[in-house]
Design a protein that fits this description.
- The chain is α/β, with parallel strands linked by helices.
- β3 and β4 form a beta hairpin.
- α2 crosses α10.
- Helix content is 34%, strand content 22%.
- 45% of the residues are buried.
């Protein structure tokens, strides 16, 4: 099935906006759970907004929605917060240049320098995608040499390890949370209408940014430990998509059909 999107209202007029990570969260849970969540979104597009907040790149987002029946988001905060973009079936993923100006300035032309410094570093394998404002590696936890972290800090950037499998190098001060807040402010969305959903440490800044939040039931233990004290966060029992529905119900952010 190919998903389409038909909306007429701006995000700031909608009752509820879901800002969600993809892998393990929006794409997590059983096929039945995902169908229930996706059907709910598609049936309520006039009152429900959707923002993907993900480590994935724009091409992945476009392919996911056009080829896999996943609802098209209205916007995307991609590349672990280094991309802020509009999204539609007609135009695909289109970066919002003026929202990315500070990100681009903080990063400069650092990609080549980072790759050179970490070339051959124990436990890191460079990911093949040529990201614009980040460098990402697959991480082998057994052989990883943590001196990579101090190398990146000395270069004036920040590092992020998530799910014990990924090592991201990002512009200092840039991550999912700050970029999402920048987008919410730009769109004049009432913060209390936005639910952030995630499951790994690269979602930490998003879950900590002060918006209503949920850590889904399959979240990595390191994330759970860091967010358990947050008063604005719901710790879901259900996994993936079902955990998101659980949080919508817990926060009473939108009416749900019976049985949800």
């Amino acid at each position: 099935m190919t998903s389409t999107r038909t909306t007429s209202s701006a995000l700031n007029t909608r009752k509820f906006i879901l800002a969600t990570d993809l892998d393990g969260t929006f794409l997590g849970g059983s096929e039945e759970d995902r169908k229930r969540l996706y059907d709910f979104i598609e049936a309520n597009r006039e009152t429900v907004g959707l923002i993907f907040v993900t480590g994935r790149d724009p091409k992945f987002i476009g392919d996911l929605c056009s080829e896999n029946g996943v609802p098209w988001p209205d916007y995307a905060v991609g590349d672990v917060g280094t991309t802020i973009a509009t999204v539609s079936p007609e135009t695909g993923v289109a970066p919002i240049v003026h929202l990315e100006e500070e990100i681009a300035t903080r990063w400069g032309d650092a990609g080549e320098k980072v790759r050179a410094r970490l070339d051959g570093h124990p436990g890191l394998s460079l990911q093949p995608t040529d990201f614009r404002y980040r460098v990402s590696y697959d991480l082998d936890h057994e052989t990883f040499d943590a001196s990579a972290c101090s190398i990146i800090e000395e270069m004036g950037h920040q590092w992020l390890i998530s799910d014990n499998r990924f090592f991201d190098v990002l512009p200092d001060g840039v991550s999912k949370g700050p970029s999402l807040r920048r987008l919410v402010e730009y769109l004049s969305i009432e913060p209390g209408r936005v639910l952030c959903a995630g499951d790994t440490l690269n979602d930490l800044s998003m879950l900590e940014c002060g918006l209503p939040a949920v850590a889904v039931g399959n979240s990595e233990p390191s994330l759970v430990e860091r967010v358990a004290h947050l008063e604005h966060l719901h710790m879901a029992q259900a996994h993936g998509a079902a955990g998101i529905l659980e949080a919508i119900r817990a926060f009473d952010m939108h009416d749900l059909p019976k049985g949800y």
